[in-house]
């Protein structure tokens, strides 16, 4: 089953294409790494996917529908695209409680997701006092609120120290074991190699590779394959 689909997605800013006729699929119940150099168009594609940006051409689908067509989207899709969307004067708990209320979720769910991302001790701390890594974890907690089938994570390792990155690897693995579909964009290629089933690589807005990890990398590491396929562009 296809959980996420990009069909001829094109997004231009002026005459400059950020994403150029991009077509790819993400299979349900699998972890897919969405890779590309800085400026390759990954974040733009993900913003189009969740309705934050309107495609110039083409379309995107999640569970067969455009994001705005999903009934109670919080229950179907959890997205981490930016850790700056929280009110700095509210506590972590209060920020999530607002989101839960909007989504019709019980307050008890807030404490459950805070525990999942190991932020229970910081639940009553104002977000303005959170480190970047803590804000990333709070974003993950927000994505989990509705216990969605699909998780879309754009650079979730930003701000995490080595221990936090190792924790994130375990977090993604746990979601996969629960049967979730995870689409994760990251520059932590060595870490991704340990958790992804499939890989999509984009460069200069265009698809350059898509398939299982083994099919894309062959006898190379993910980093070696990435550098080869993107013309040596550094991640």
């Amino acid at each position: 089953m296809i959980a996420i689909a990009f069909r001829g997605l094109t997004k231009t800013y002026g005459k400059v294409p950020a994403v150029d006729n991009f077509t790819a699929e993400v299979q349900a119940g699998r972890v897919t790494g969405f890779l590309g150099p800085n400026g390759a168009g990954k974040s733009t594609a993900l913003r189009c996917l969740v309705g934050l940006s309107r495609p110039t051409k083409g379309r995107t689908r999640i569970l067969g529908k455009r994001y705005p067509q999903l009934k109670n989207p919080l229950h179907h899709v959890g997205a981490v695209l930016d850790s700056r969307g929280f009110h700095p004067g509210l506590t972590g708990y209060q920020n999530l409680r607002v989101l839960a209320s909007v989504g019709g979720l019980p307050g008890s769910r807030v404490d459950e997701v805070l525990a999942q991302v190991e932020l229970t001790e910081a639940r009553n701390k104002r977000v303005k006092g959170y480190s970047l890594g803590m804000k990333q974890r709070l974003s993950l907690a927000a994505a989990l609120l509705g216990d969605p089938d699909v998780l879309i994570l754009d650079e979730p390792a930003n701000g995490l120290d080595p221990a936090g990155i190792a924790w994130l690897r375990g977090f993604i693995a746990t979601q996969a074991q629960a049967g979730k579909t995870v689409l994760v964009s990251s520059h932590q290629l060595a870490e991704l190699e340990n958790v992804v089933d499939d890989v999509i690589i984009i460069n200069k807005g265009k698809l350059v590779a898509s398939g299982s990890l083994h099919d894309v990398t062959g006898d190379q590491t993910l980093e070696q394959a990435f550098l080869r396929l993107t013309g040596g562009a550094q991640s």
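The chain has two domains: 1-71+149-163+181-235, 77-147. The chain has a mean pLDDT of 94.
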